[in-house]
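Task: sequence in, structure out. Protein: Alpha/beta hydrolase.
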Amino acid sequence: MPISTRLLTAGLRAGGAVSPPLAGRLALRLFFTTTPRMTVREVDRATHEAAQRERIRIRGSEVVAYRWGHAERAVLLMHGWQGRASQFAPLVRELVSAGFRVVAFDAPAHGGSGGRRTDVRDWVEAAARLQRTDGPFHALVGHSFGGFAALTAARTVVPSPRVAVVAGGASPAAFLAEFSRALHLEPAVAASLEQRFAARFGLDPDGIAAAYDAIRDPLPSGTELLVVHDRDDRRMPDADAVRVHAAHAGRSQLLRTDGLGHNRVLAADPVLDAIVAFADGGIAEVDARRSDASDIDGSRVRAGDSADSPASAVP
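Result:
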């Protein structure tokens, strides 16, 4: 953890009892911290370097867009907070091999892109910009915060028949609640954080829920949803995944893994297979290709869990 982040965390905990509004301001700064930037893993480098690159302007920041393959059908990948597009390297290879063209980007203040500040509006604007040049997209795939961004984009400016959310949440509330829980914020500080977060968007907390909650306002009726979440995910417990799956009853597939956590789930063979099947033919194709359970490197994946299956934790 960088020194500045450690200082913010220490100040946040010390200030919570003295001034919840001040602690809420510090919490907001810490919540939106994007450093340290993730570097490209060596195992992902060949795929990362094979991409065609373009620099585009998104809300005042220079963003790197990546493209792989030349097929007609295109899939857009959206990384998470403090992540980068290269995390999707295993999925990129699988999708290109299956006959898809793949598009991704590093959000502002992430990866190889410029900028020092960002929020979900940048993810959505990048998706909309790439939709105009590379779409329409056959599917959107988002990891963690990028899953929430994919839901938001598909509900607003980037219509797509399929959205896959991996280790994600359905609304800002899920991320704010997990952040507050992880830092043991006092209720008054957590409330101040929520209010300040909404004010950043020119809204109040109810306005944020109305604009950015895919449970309260589900995907368009013609859009199918694949939800992938590990039961051992410590960064984003899977309760929100269960809820967003239930909100799309009849057009959603819930796939839960064990032992893969928040990031390794992106490279697990059963997850890759499910996402490729989903991009190819929707939840019917996922059902057609899956078995009831698969063991890969000691992990287990279960597809088709019901909406009322127990979640590992509730934010």
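The beta strands are 52-58, 61-68, 74-78, 101-106, 137-143, 162-166, 224-230, 252-258, 293-296, 299-303.
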